[in-house]
Amino acid sequence: MSKKKQLMFIMPVMKGGGAEKVAALLLNELNNNGYECELVLTNSDRSEIVDRGLSSEIGITVLREAFTKSGALRKLFLVLFRLFLSLICKIPEAFGMKVPAGLAQLSFKAQYYDELKALRNHIIGKPDAAIISFLQPSIPLALLATKDLPNRVVVSERADPYRLLKKRYGYNFIKKYYQRADAVVFQTNDAKAAYPENISAKGTVIFNPINDKLPEPYSGEREKYVTTFCRISRQKNLPVLVEAFSEFHKEFTDYRLKIIGEPQNDDDRASLSETKALADKLGIKDCIDLLPFSTQVHDMIISDGMYVNSSDYEGMSNAMLEAMAIGMPVICTDCPIGGANAVINNNENGILTQVGNADELCEAMKKIAGDKEFADKLSKNAAQIRYDLSLVNTAKKWMELL
Questions:
Q1: pLDDT tens for residues 262-300?
Q2: Domain 5-68+101-205 -> CATH class
Q3: What is the pTM of this model?
Q4: Per the CATH hierarchy, to which homologous superfamily does domain 223-388 belong?
Q5: How far apart are CA 43 and CA 356, in angstroms?
């Protein structure tokens, strides 16, 4: 019997985000195709893990459980060294300059000393494992931890690279240290174009897979709901959705706004409070249903009138793809990094609107609510994406890359 190919998937956390969902789908499919898979979490406690449908056959390693206990003197030294490097890095940042790559690397190593040491020790024990790493800070952790090791490394940033490149561990750091990657996977061509040329040259574009367990597309009479489901955060710009719905509701008074999702941190909770306050100010608080996330979310929304994504930026929105796949008429902001633009043919299988433009969002809602034939066309055309971006086809591209 041939030995299974080993795969180590490295991420910061396994909570409720889209990247985690993609990771779980890919891990399950790669496991089914002969890979011995392991998920390594670099910035999480085991109690924080959220079930994303990950197969029980896939082992989960929580790096914090492998940390070596530091003595008081070493802890003090690391804290002081980290503060010193942070102050040094602030000098070029204060003048709008990019932090030199070597200095950024030292700052990163000081900040993530324990994670880096534990990850390298873990990888050393598995020299045959291919590595896939998603998200910050796990990508630079994986690249620095595998220095001079035989493991092949594939990295994929899932957020907006234009924002990432402006940060301390941004352009100069990426240009120098991401060269260690054997390949880089981008979600869109726009994301690929954002990176330094020496990194984008190693890149390939692979769209997110669509869950093969989604309900079949719906084509019956639709309920009077404008719906979104997402992790509640500022990135999603729910206030612009509330503002657009407020205007829409003046003409289509029988519609309600359904928001499904939960905040994960204090800033998310503040954003939700601000959204509620705006709804109250606009007099539509009683027309909005705020619901917690559910594993049955697709059954909850499949017959709703439309799905709306009002994000300021996205990688490749899984919620948008899933709404299209179950046949919902979809409206999405044409936001960086071009995920919506890559899959939506405007007014054919969905509607694209300008980021932050409540008037455009409102008009798109009216167009769908006021024209059943148009809404049905969007619905039918959108559902085709479940075949174009099937999990089997997407995983095959990853396996070819590996």
A1: 998 899 999 999 999 999 999 999 999 999 988 899 999
A2: alpha beta
A3: 0.87
A4: Glycogen Phosphorylase B; (3.40.50.2000)
A5: 32
